[in-house]
Specification:
It contains 4 helices and 15 strands. With 258 residues, it is an alpha+beta fold.
Amino acid sequence: MANAKRSVRLGFVDLGADNRPKSGQPYPVIDAGSYKIGEIAYPQTPYKRLNLDLTSFYCNDMPDLLGSNEGMFKVSVNSRNPQNLSSKTGVAFVSRFSVSDNNYAPSFLYRGVYRNIIFQDFINLAFQLYELDTDAEIYYDKVTRILDGVPEIKSLDVLSGIPYLSLATKLFDGIIKTFGKNPDDEIWAEIPTLDIHPTPGGAFLRTGIYVIFERQNASRQKIRHEMLEYKDGGITTNSGVSLSNTLTVNLSLRPHHD
């Protein structure tokens, strides 16, 4: 059976008056469109710089057979003008992982994804989660070994951004298209817009901790923002209900001066 895409929600950790989360202190998760987020200060310069880190991915359940998951995450960002989509190019980060159900995936802890992405008033973020067939790892490793043998690729500066990330995107798309057994291996396909001044109900773009989570867990229990808490770098539920698949992301906005 083909895998159906799953609906997710976007939350924001309400730190209150704290600039950084304190050890042992639980913090509520609120909707990313909450008016509280709009009260958080942001850089007043015309252009701003965005940093983005992944901090954790909790796997409640993916469409595997034996509870062992092979997956890929693709996180893309751009700040293109919707009326002129060719004005700028977006960049993407790709990461492959293995994790069993009801566990945290390795290699997500403070994983630096973007540094110094320059934007004006908004950004588009794309979160794409794929379940891979078990034999995809073999082909992935073959391709990466070939790429590692090319001096021009090995010398690229990862943090400089676009060339390396563009390459990763092409590699990712090729693996999915060529070696995925099912056409619907994509589990998440969400592209939220985060805005300095969003439309009513829209998501605010601010420095802070964002939480992307599926609307229901493996037991088909609904997950709402008010059921989640952030504590010591992790997300838990305060109602005894199991977490759904959950990704935490740290965003930082800084002023940009020409």
